[in-house]
Amino acid sequence: MYKRKNRLFIVLISCSIFILNACSTSEKGITETEKPFEKTNDFLVDHYATNETLALYNNLKIVTQNAVLFGHQDDTAYGVGWNTVLGRSDVKEVCGDYPAVYGWDLGDIGNKSNLDGVNFENMKRWIREAYSRGGINTISMHLDNPVTGNNAWDNSPAVAAILPGGSHHNNYISTLKNVADFMKDIKTSNGENIPILFRPYHEHNQTWSWWGKSACTSDEYNQLWQMTVEYLRDTMDVHNLLYIISPQDLSDQFDYFERYPGDDYVDIFGLDYYQLTNPASITKLGKSLDIIASLAESRGKISALTEVGNEKLTIDNWYTDYLLKALMYNENSKKTAWCLAWRNSNSSHYFVPYPGEKSVMNFVQFYNDPFTIFENDLPDMYK
Ligand code: BMA
Q: Whose CA is closest to atom 4 on ligand 1?
């Protein structure tokens, strides 16, 4: 029933071998060391990123030039009608394959489970399992408001208080220490750190969160981002992260840099988009993906559709006629590295079909399209 995309797979493999071979002789000496704490590159935020993290970045660039990886939030943690069942995944049960990208969230880090009830030790296990199958993991953080203690949606001012010298700085650093410890503990049984696409302080051009544009100035936001990177990378020696910025919606290319910590602090240009609900929005999203792909390319970076979805799949054929069309809008939008659908919490809050749901056949069509890459189609992304 499920068509494998062998032709695409072979092309991707040959292409990566060719380009990686070219890289191995480059002046940057990308493959010169196996040791994780030696300098590996000059172009990532972390010049000491592990070799696997650097390989992930290089492979993402190559593999997704004319294809998109499909991702799903909390995919193996729970789905509609089940929670924490070994091997289960709504995506797999519908199309026969796991997603290529798995989204996770560190909101409520320091507790046993995250804000959506995902146990953090289980999360590490699912991340390890995904990695061992060749999958890719991305992590966002809906952290509580550090001043009021209310959740991430409490948009009362907090950022000035957690910057160096602020009244809540030390407390916030202990939260970031929990983040660092979590990242460092995501290892294989051989002790190899698993690369993570890290997406903190997302949708910062919106107003819903305490890091959003009504709660802090651009300058404060940028300082918060820089402080976070420097603490994780330089103080805590976390070297398995690629850093993604992800505003929500975009009016033009200048919009992207209104709140932006600088090229030295960002590896990947993301975009979150939930307005894909009428034909005009297909063009709107296609154009936005075009913009972020060319901005990213001009700075040697990668672009991605970091969150997307049509809650409850209210639109017929949304996956093929809306999402795929927007991704394939033009040659630039086709460079989008991955798209990640949000979580399947229950039958009134879900974004991918589950067995018996009305969009199953449309999702299988999306899966069968040679443009989409699920886990079985991935070449080795870590070499
Ligand atoms: C939102 C919803 C919430 C959830 C939050 C963080 O979009 O799914 O139910 O708590 O994301 O995952």
A: 116
**Which residue in 52, 203, 220, 375 is the catalytic one?**
203
The token pair at 376 is 């079985």
pLDDT for 106-163, tens place per residue? 999 999 999 999 999 999 999 999 999 999 999 999 999 999 999 999 999 999 999 9
Give pLDDT, residue 28: 28
Q: Is 331 a catalytic residue?
A: no
203 is catalytic: yes
Pure H helices in the chain: 6-24, 51-63, 90-95, 120-132, 159-162, 169-184, 218-230, 279-298, 325-327, 360-368
**Hey, what domains does the chain have and what are their CATH numbers?**
67-374 (3.20.20.80)
Ligand 1 lined by 163 (C-beta under 6 Å): no
Which protein residue's CA is at the shortest distance from atom 3 of ligand 1?
Answer: 116
Measured CA to CA, the distance from residue 17 to residue 7 in angstroms comes to: 16
Task: Identify any residues that bridge with 143 across adjacent strands, giving them in sequence order.
Answer: none
* Contact in structure between 303 and 336 (CB atoms under 8 Å): yes
* Digit-coded pLDDT (tens) for 358-376: 999 999 999 999 999 999 9
Determine if ligand 1 sits within 6 Å of the CB of residue 208: no
User: Which of ligand 1's atoms lies nearest the C-alpha of 74?
Assistant: 12
pTM of the model: 0.92
User: Which of 370, 368, 294, 306 has its CA nearest to residue 331?
Assistant: 294
- Please state the atom number of ligand 1 nearest to the C-alpha of residue 107: 6
- Quick: pLDDT tens for 12-67: 443 443 344 333 333 323 343 444 467 888 999 999 999 999 999 999 999 999 99
